[in-house]
Amino acid sequence: MTFDTIKQQLDTYRQAAVDMRDILLANAVMIGEIPAPTFYEDQRVRFIEDRFSECGLQNCSTDEVGNGLGILEGTEGQKNILLVAHADTVFNEKVDHTISMVSDRLIGPGVGDNSLGLALLASLPLLLERLNIRLKSNLIFMAAARGLGRGNLEGLRFFLHNHQSPIAQALCVEGVKLGRLSYSSIGMLRAEINVRVPELYDWTRFGASGAVITLNDIINSINRIPLPKRPKTSIVLGSIEGGNSFNNIATHSLLRFEVRSESAEVVHRLLEEIRDRITEVELHSSAEISLDIVARREPGGIDFRHPLVRHARDLLKALHIEPRVAPSTSELAELIRHRIPAVTLGLTTGKKHTQVMEEIDIEPIFTGVAQFLGLLMAMDEGCCDEH
Amino acid sequence: MNIEHWLPNHTFHYSSFWDFRHLVEAKQAQNLRISLCIPTLNEEHTIGKEIVIFKSELMSRYPLLDEIAVIDSGSTDNTREVAASFGAEVYLAEEILPEVGSKRGKGENLWKAIYQLTGDIIVYVDADIKNIHPRFAYGLVAPLIYRPEIKYVKAFYDRPLAFSQGIRPSGGGRVTEILVRPLFSLFFPELTALIQPLSGEYAVRREVLEAIPFPIGYGVETSHLIDVYHKWGMEAFGQTDLDQRVHRNQATRDLGKMSFGILQTFLNRAKALGLVPHVPELQSILRQFQVKEGQFEQIEYHIVEEERPPMIEIPAYRAKFHPGT
Predict the structure, then answer these.
(1) DSSP character for B218?
(2) Which of A155, A165, A135, A129 is nearest to A56 (CA)?
């Protein structure tokens, strides 16, 4: 099958996804309603593994770190293509995980990030069966555990480290956003700054202040760090916590932040700069301040002109979707580190990303599925191989 | 039949019916047709998800259900449009059997579903369940498939009630524990074995549904239990633990109305069966009070538990399901 033939099949793929609407949506709802905070994905992964088994996938199992895996054997089996969706969410189990569905949207925590991506993996074997498609390559389905935050991609890293046969290419899928095309990883460092004021602190001393004020000093100091425009670099202050009440001086506070840059050297330099500034604040405050690095990514990726990226762009164009090229810090980064050609695609539009009431639109999902399937077919046919 | 003997033999947990393939094979071997009925009134926020889950899991993946139908009481929101858009068959209750007229109440929808739907088994599931799951249908249908002597399967739950602080477990429903269970204990002790007699989810064989009258209001579940017990005995009942059901909590005031309707139905049944021979003519006004600007104010609710006759008595029904009789 040529790439042009695949493009001509996109309408058929889309219609097949429409015909499977109830299964796709039901999977998204049922997966989304099982809480899966990072490190506690086991129930969700078990559900997905059951789905894999019911679809006839081989070797369905949960590995030592909690990844859910299944294999759809190809007719030739000479190539392994890895399909990855991260299984974890940022929401703890106390959050109401009910997903609601109105006529055109699904609403609930993590519904786009990444229940829908997982739902596609859970539904894909049936979709292929209905389309009477038998791929030449082996497909490895993976619901990746321990991806977010402190998980630091441990699930995928464990798999890539221990998997016996080589992975030729990989496709990562996220619920949002349709048009997303990530083929490179950005240099990244995630860290926490903890400020603690000793229990027996002398509050009468000059300049005495609580942990919130001290953290504020650190934030102000970080904000004064000059950032280069090239290579593109940013520091994201993601969240803060601290104190217990209105009227007691806070004895602890916490800042979570991320440094991103196209250059690994810049990330390293900024980390040292932040360390220096923390030390300076610490000396002036007498608080105990620690910096804990949670996750790191190295920049890299495949070229914009790589056949995998080029065909992904062509498919988006054929489906009249505006590509949204952006580097990734998620599973793709680990694949890049292992020099596995890979891209990340999104499936639909949505809003309130990472919020409890995240919304995703139903109608674009079918186009997103067609795009995913088209690229998978192109990978299977060897159109995306680098010669 | 004593309760100790009945309970373990007629009480199930939905998880014991996990083997859908086997369940569908058993259904097909008996050539059974199964219909799911969802009665609705302004449920646009929950109906879509409910239909998608049932259709995906129990029609597309495993053909346990042959029909999913919404019987609507005249919603003023988009319930019917949403239900139809997700693939349910949607009917307006007043358009079913128009020759018998139209009455308001959930029981009316359930009763008319017997005519409209084609299943040998009908499973009724409410539309307001937040944590909808396929178990709400297969957990109730399975005992009917596997156990021919069982005719009527009720759901029961570890009942969490959604409230402002999340979810808390409660015992049985308040009306069950305060009204129905004491009444059953007094007059029908065996029926107390049903852990949640008022649950809105149940699966029933057509031969039973067509033979019992239907109060159209609050008393429909209570009357069913008494009538099925009277005609077929405890052997005909099953009950399935469906774990949790998350739904809207009802105000105590509304539970008062519900209890008033159930009491009417119960007393009429008790009188007809000769258990309470001298029941005076029942009043139909429920009085509740509220305080407004420092003054007590009386509110009157006119609640009459009207009943539909057994469906088998309706000529159009006999013509459709028992032609030639």
Answers:
(1) T
(2) A129
pLDDT cut 90: percent of chain A above it: 86
Contact A209, A367 (CB under 8 A): no
Q: How confident is residue A353, by pLDDT bands cut at 50, 70 and 90?
A: confident
Give the H/E segment covering residue A70.
Answer: strand A68-72
CB-based contact B56 A23, cutoff 8 Å: yes
The answer to whether the CB atoms of A23 and B85 lie below 8 A apart is no
Nearest-Cα residue of chain A relative to residue B245: A98
Q: What is the pLDDT of residue A180?
A: 96
Q: Residue range A369-377: average pLDDT? A: 98
- Are B203 and B154 in contact, with CB atoms under 8 Å apart? no
Smallest Cα–Cα separation from A138: which of A125, A122, A156, A153?
A125
Average pLDDT over residues B246-262: 85
β-strands B11-13, B237-244: how paired?
parallel
The answer to whether the beta carbons of residues A141 and A32 sit under 8 Å apart is no
Q: What is the largest CA-CA distance in chain A?
A: 79
Q: How confident is the model at residue A134 (pLDDT cuts 50, 70, 90)?
A: very high
| Domains recognised in chain A with CATH numbers | 3-185+299-380 (3.40.630.10), 187-296 (3.30.70.360)
**pLDDT tier at B168, thresholds 50, 70, 90:** very low
Q: Name the residue facing A22 among B45, B60, B167 (closest C-beta).
A: B60
pLDDT confidence of residue B1: 64
Structure token pair of residue B287:
């009085």
The count of CB pairs under 8 A between chains A and B is 52
Other Cβ atoms less than 10 A from the Cβ of A294: the count is 15
In terms of Cα–Cα distance, which of A290, A293, A294, A295 is closest to A194?
A290
**Which domains does chain B possess?**
3-321 (3.90.550.10)
On whether any CB of chain B is under 8 Å from the CB of A199, the answer is no
SS3 content of chain B, % helix, strand, coil (to 5): 45, 20, 35
- Residues across chain B: 325
Contacts of A94 in chain B (CB under 8 A): 166
Quote the pTM value: 0.87
Query: Among all residues of chain B, which has the CA nearest to that of A18?
Result: B86
Percent of chain A having pLDDT more than 70? 97
Tell me, what's the pLDDT at B253?
86
Query: Is residue A158 pLDDT above 60, yes or no?
Result: yes
Q: How many CB atoms lie within 10 A of CB B65?
A: 23
Distance from CA of B22 to the nearest CA of A (A): 13
* Mean pLDDT, rounded, for A121-131: 97
Residue B182 is predicted with a pLDDT of 95
pLDDT(B164) > 60: no
Whether B230 shows a pLDDT value over 50: the answer reads yes
Contact (CB<8Å) A29/B53: yes
Residue B143 CA: distances (Å) to CA of A340, A382, B12, B279: 52, 52, 8, 38
Please state whether beta strands B152-158 and B160-163 pair in parallel, antiparallel, or not at all (unpaired): unpaired
Length of chain A: 387
CB atoms B56 and A22 under 8 Å: yes
Asked if the Cβ–Cβ distance from A103 to B87 is below 8 Å, we say no
